[in-house]
Design brief:
binds zinc ion, single chain, Rossmann fold, binds adenosine-5'-diphosphate, binds magnesium ion, 4 domains, 5-stranded parallel beta sheet, 500 residues, alpha/beta, 12 strands, Helicase, Ruva Protein, domain 3, Zinc Finger, Delta Prime, domain 3
Length: 500
Amino acid sequence: MEYITLYRKYRPKDFSEIKGQEHITKILINTLEKNMISHAYLFSGPKGTGKTTVARIFAKGLNCDEGITSKPCNKCKNCLSINDGTNIDVIEIDGASNRGIDEVRSLKERVSLSPTFGRYRVFIIDESHMLTQEAFNALLKTLEEPPQKTVIILATTDPQKLPLTIISRCIRFNFKRIGINDLVDMGRTIAKNEKISVDEEVLYKIAEASDGSLRDFISLFEQLILFSGEKIDIENLLSLFGESEDEVYKDFFIGIQNGEDAKILSMIGELINSGKEVQEILRGIIGYGRKILFKKIFEEEIDSEVKSLKKDFIIDVIDNLIELFSELRYSNFPRFMFEIRVLKLILKYSKTKPLIVEEEKPQKVIEEEKKAPHLIKERSFIWDDFLLNLKNKNRAIYSIMRFGKFIEIKEDKIYVQFPYSSKFQKEMADEKKDFLRNFLSELGYKNYDFDFSIQSEEDYLKEREEIEKSEEVTTLFKYFDGKVEKIEENIEDTEDEKKN
Ligand SMILES: Nc1ncnc2c1ncn2[C@@H]1O[C@H](COP(=O)(O)OP(=O)(O)O)[C@@H](O)[C@H]1O
Ligand SMILES: [Mg+2]
Ligand SMILES: [Zn+2]
């Protein structure tokens, strides 16, 4: 059997199958039902969003054997020949390849003829912004004195390149990017029809990579099917396409915000090792930043990770990188300058992240009448983020403090407890209290102070008893003789400390 590419196989044959363009299909359906046909339409919008498809459905609605209808039958000779592009009254012209004088002349001639069998002669001019000035002039004449029963549909991704004189004579429809959910939905339909099992995560990833183009989405999905067969998981996706650049750039923004300096530096290293110039990487990151910024401003769908990035943060990162871009022209150390600039951004942003936050927590109500727990607002101190900041400021003090555990915050005191086995660290922490108080105020928490305590012997013994009774330990003792000698927190060394 002949293999039909999926995007053609799944080309909608009816207005009801068009996704994400209800604002357009509604009007066109009305136009057909009320028989209020105009001479010229302009379909503008990004590629793969349905311009050509909608134009063909409209043409069928005009020429179906059942008469002008918003629901073409898709069975009659006219419908069928329009579907496969062989109808003599529905003429598709590619603006990009009809630029010569002869083509323009024949365009002129063809437009002046009246329709043969059908009721309407429909010209669908794709990539119409690529027409030559001459062709536009010919077109304009036709638009000024349109022949009977002729409809011209101009499709373009770049409406700003069309002469105003043309635009003003058309009824204009702006096609929108197709939203992630509609794209994924299409993926589910195709998977079901083609009997393919595919992880949802994969569909979401290709949807993101398609940037609102349903055609791109279907093509990517098709490549994946040809590559992996009927079972598709995220591994297949990665081995076919690798991690998409956008994913890398996203991790870059998120990494800066989370203060992940080591991760960012190795990411830069990998990009450079893959053969990219620093300028090229910057261009990619700036482009991606611009894209997510616009999505935020225009409130388009974005994934939850990107949602967590603040607008002014994105703007500042882009701003810094643009400045860096021009500085690089005079530099012999582009990579190093890039790294330093990024590390500075990390320092700036990991500091400004709030360390004290309000959380809603359940609290039991003791009064007789209301026994149920209710939510109270409680302040919490983000100890892990504090440690991350401290690590950048003073390694030695950080290596003491990381033994501590945040307990609570009351008024302006932050209570931290050290485990029973870390008396030494607790004493050191007390000695560094002045430093820590200053550091807190440097981070924006003036007048705050720490209160360090040590776990009581009683608590320690209780904890120890619990651990001794735990299944892991009792099983261990079944095989080995012994008793619990000492219990210590397992505090992992970070990679770079192991090296020191
Ligand atoms: N809005 C849409 N609804 C359903 N399918 C669509 C839509 N837009 C595009 N497609 C799919 O993508 C393919 C190409 O669409 P097309 O109409 O040629 O896009 P455009 O002309 O805007 O570039 C179609 O065959 C169809 O499979
Ligand atoms: Mg098209
Ligand atoms: Zn028909």
